């Protein structure tokens, strides 16, 4: 909501509004403890949710998300959600920048996909899915 051709969404202008939006989505879908996969621009929704409601998640998979600089190292260290940080080694901008913040998450692993750019899941789909499925298989 609020990106691309979707209509502007005033209630989603704040992090609290985006957290409430994701809460409603999870509730309507009947999801109890999903794994939140967050590539790029979706970080504006996922990161506030992870900071406020990480207890609702079984896992978190940020893929070079935006908004990582909006939080402090201390805030990241409070999140106990198992996290798989994924990015392509050719993503020398957002991938590396996001890693600087996200590596403060205490329960994280990092997978860098060789030869992949910002949309590493499109550039190297087999490697991406192998890493994602391996992470999912380790969750309880």
From TrEMBL:
GO cellular component: cytoplasm
Subcellular location: Cytoplasm
Keywords in alphabetical order: Cytoplasm
Predominant location category: cytoplasm
Domain AB hydrolase-1: 12-130
Protein family (similarity comment): Belongs to the AB hydrolase superfamily. ABHD14 family.
Record protein name field: ABHEA protein
Organism: Alectura lathami (Australian brush turkey)
Source taxonomy: Eukaryota, Metazoa, Chordata, Craniata, Vertebrata
Encoding gene (name): Abhd14a
């Amino acid at each position: 909501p609020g990106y691309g051709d979707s209509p502007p969404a005033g209630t989603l202008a704040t992090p609290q509004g985006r957290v409430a939006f994701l809460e409603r989505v999870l509730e309507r879908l009947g999801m109890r403890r999903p794994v939140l996969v967050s590539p790029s621009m979706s970080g504006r929704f996922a990161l506030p949710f992870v900071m406020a409601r990480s207890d609702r998640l079984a896992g978190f998979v940020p893929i070079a998300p935006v908004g990582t600089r909006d939080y402090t190292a201390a805030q990241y260290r409070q999140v106990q959600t198992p996290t798989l940080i994924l990015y392509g080694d050719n993503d020398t901008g957002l991938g590396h920048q996001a890693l600087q913040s996200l590596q403060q998450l205490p329960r994280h692993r990092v997978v860098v996909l060789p030869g992949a750019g910002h949309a590493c899941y499109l550039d190297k789909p087999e490697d991406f899915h192998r890493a994602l499925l391996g992470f999912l298989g380790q969750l309880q």
